[in-house]
Amino acid sequence: PLPTPTNTRNSTMMKTALLASLIAGASAFAPASSGVKTTALSAAKKSAALPFLPAPANLEGYLGDVGFDPLRISDYVPMDYLREAELKHGRICMLAWTGFVAVDMGLRVYPLPADLVGLTSATAHDSAVAQGGLQQIFLFIAIAEMTSWLGVAQMLQGSGREPGDFGLDPLGFLTNKSEDQVNRLKLQELKNGRLAMLAFSGACTQAVLTGNGFPYTF
């Protein structure tokens, strides 16, 4: 007998249902989404300086980044502020190490107050406090800090100012330089500042422990 429209429609519906069930069953064996893989790769990125720790994400893109932030301070404090602080302390310590060692090698600015004659860098602190010179230094530093904070505050509010940039380049080191050359000079300053922070700490410690002048050995 010839197939009726009803039989044809029922046969088509059965085939469609069978095909849908086959597709649903096959999808159970399909590979998982690649999102998990991407997350795993991101989590697997390690710090260059401390390979046993994950790389701090907020350091990425900053000059001199080697992934060194074991306390994860960059997770809680703006990176521009941290870079500003690093550059400031590095610059201070480069000057401080030079001055500390120069005094212990005999450099003096005359005339000297009588209370400061014959002192070393390690023994000058108490005498300078009693004489009043250190209070003057504290005042000048406080004025410089308050003035510099204006630029830092504007930077944190999105002014576009780069951390540590006070427009001070009297010798024109950055004039007519390419971007790569400028970044190289900035990286040199950053690395020398990091070294100076360690060097000044070591010089102060050795000077007190040994009681001797430069090079602060027994």
Walk me through what this model shows.
With about 220 residues, the protein is mostly helical. Helices cover about 55% and strands about 0% of the residues. The chain is built from six helices and no strands. Helix 3 (about 80-105) packs across helix 6.
Topology of helices and strands:
Layout: H1 5-27, H2 35-43, H3 79-104, H4 124-131, H5 133-156, H6 179-210
Question: How would you characterize the largest beta sheet?
Answer: none
Regarding quaternary structure, how should these chains be classified?
single chain
CA distance, first residue to last residue = 116 Å
Shape: globular
- Spans with pLDDT under 50 lasting ≥5 residues? 24-42
Helix count, DSSP H or I runs of 4 or more residues: 6
Count of distinct strands: 0
Secondary-structure element series = HHHHHH
Q: Radius of gyration from the CA trace? A: 33 Å
Helix content: 55-70%
Rounded mean pLDDT is 84
Classify the beta-strand content into a percent band: under 5%
Which class of secondary structure composition applies to the elements?
mainly alpha
Summarize the structure.
The chain is mostly helical. The chain has helices at residues 5-27, 35-43, 79-104, 124-131, 133-156, 179-210.
